[in-house]
Design a protein that fits this description.
Ubiquitin-like (UB roll); 1 helix; mainly beta; 29% strand; globular; 4-stranded mixed beta sheet
């Protein structure tokens, strides 16, 4: 299916959820925030939140520093 991830077109497997997407990009759930179609779902709902054709996903990764 075709979606946009961080503004770029992407092809994903049908039936992918947000949790799987984060793991696919080798990120850690506790280090990112995901926005799906301009809404921020709860992290506890990532496994149950399916990505659909045409969705827009933004993944923001937290960086530490000082």
């Amino acid at each position: 299916m075709r979606v946009k991830i961080n503004g770029q077109p992407a092809e994903l497997e049908s039936g992918m959820n947000l949790e799987h997407l984060i793991k696919f990009y080798r990120l850690k759930i506790d280090q990112v925030v995901v926005e799906l179609n301009r809404k921020v779902p709860l992290k506890s709902a990532y496994a149950a939140t399916l990505i659909q054709e045409g969705d827009e996903v933004e993944i923001v990764k937290f960086l530490g520093g000082g």
